[in-house]
Write a structure and sequence with these properties.
The protein is globular and about 50 Å long. With 216 residues, it is α/β, with parallel strands linked by helices. The protein has helices at residues 9-27, 36-44, 55-60, 96-111, 139-152, 155-161, 173-184, 188-197, and strands at residues 47-51, 64-69, 82-86, 126-129, 170-172, 201-203. It starts with 8 loop residues before the first helix and ends in a 13-residue tail after the last strand. The protein folds into two domains: 1-152, no CATH class; 154-216, no CATH class. Strands 1-3-2-4 form a four-stranded mixed sheet. It has a two-stranded parallel ribbon with strand order 5-6.
Amino acid sequence: MTRTRFIPVGTIRKYAEEVLFEYERMIGRLEFPLDVADIFERLFELQTVFDDKGVLDRSYGTGVIGCLFPPGHPSPWGRDKLIVINAAPGYEGFSHSHTIAHEGGGHYILHFLQGIGPDAASRPVFCRDVGNNKAKKHPLEWQADRFAGELVMPVERVKWLLDGKGVGEMINLDFYAKNFQEHFGTSRAQMEKRLVDLGYLLTRPKYEWADYSKRR
């Protein structure tokens, strides 16, 4: 078993910033929330498919939020170069933009294009499971999650939306959460994760793991 290559957060951010730079150069200006599916179709010819027929569940078992089928890896749809989002009943609470960025950016750019694959895979593709236990999350999944956060919620745009507040400062989510989620088009969970990853201290978070007062 090969050891997963460590990718520093700074490198992951650099990849995400380069993608946004190229996309902005192509379309003229960035508008938020980003059309993440358009980013990966224009820059990498990866088409996004929303599976509302339960194909992913039947093919790989329940609990798969999304999958990447890169070049040379045909999907159950008979095509490759696909990002597939599970849109079946029961998956409504997940952020589509984050999942597209996770699969198309994290797994395609950080992993597939670099020749990195899962150390042990039960599927012949990159897939994102529902499991959110950070302690058990595979390093490739952590890297892809971080890339998605950096792409969908760029750090400078986050600071601007938080009135210039810097790392380590207290963020009152009662005041900022609604505008934040609408601006970036992201879920409450992904918003809180992004802010925690950036080092902000959250008051009144929805999720216990985001509550700084309860961390040891």
